[in-house]
Amino acid sequence: MAERNWSITVMFSTLCLVATLNLAACSSMDSKSGSEGMSKLSTPKDGELALRADYKSWPTFLKAVQKPDAVRDLYVNPKGATTSQGQMFPNGTVFVMEIYQAKKMADGNMEKGTDGKLVKDRLAKVFVMQKGDGWGQDVPDNLKTGNWVYSAFTPDGEPLKANFNECRACHVPLGAQKDWVHRYDEYFETRGGR
């Protein structure tokens, strides 16, 4: 009986030791990858953002924005949608902009709907703009747009190489008054100033 108890004690001690070693190894891996992953996630650079699969369920920022040969649909995540006119968007705000090619007719002219607006054809690109504390500070001063960072994706959601300096240069003139966000006033006008 004593020999059996000793065997059970040894087996239990061995299991405890293995479990402790596994936990220590996992903890070490988590803290290592976690700290590297967190620092990378907490201060991403242009081109390092993720494209959320559920963005189409977010509030609409603006729909059917007309460009000479494209139509844009823009979404804002729920956190960003809590912003009121005159405020800056909070850290954690994400915008997603879908860029659709405009449909062409057989004669090469752009097709327009009964409302006179361009008709969407295929999705060409998806851009993401996200704001975080201390983000976007690794670029030249003349290209800083507050704490915003930018990324681009193919229609299938694959990361797309883009010249993010062009994105920044386009947003820079808007300044802090509009939080570097295009169509800031138009968005709040469609919401009734809320």
Low-confidence stretches: 5-40
CATH architecture: 3-Layer(bba) Sandwich
Q: Name the helix and strand elements from N-terminus to C-terminus, one letter apiece.
A: HEEEEEHH
Name the structural class: alpha+beta
Helical content stands at 25-40%
Annotated CATH homologous superfamily: Cytochrome P460
Tally of extended strands?
5
Strand portion, in percent?
A: 15-25%
For the residues shown, what is the average pLDDT?
Answer: 82
Shape: globular
Oligomer: single chain
Tally of contiguous helical segments: 3
Going across the major beta sheet, what is the strand order? 1-2-3-4-5
CATH topology: Chalcone isomerase
Note the gap between the termini.
78 Å
Largest sheet: 5 strands, antiparallel
In the CATH scheme, the class would be: Alpha Beta
Gyration radius, rounded: 25 Å
Describe this entry's structure for a reader.
The structure is a single chain. The protein is of the alpha+beta class. The protein has one domain: Cytochrome P460 (Chalcone isomerase), CATH 3.50.70. The chain has three helices and five strands. It has helices at residues 2-42, 164-171, 184-190; strands spanning 60-67, 70-76, 94-102, 120-131, 148-153. The chain has a five-stranded antiparallel beta sheet. The chain is globular and about 50 Å long. It starts with a helix and ends with a helix. Residues 5-40 have low confidence and may be disordered.
Highlighted features:
globular, single chain, 5 strands, 22% strand, 194 residues, alpha+beta, Chalcone isomerase
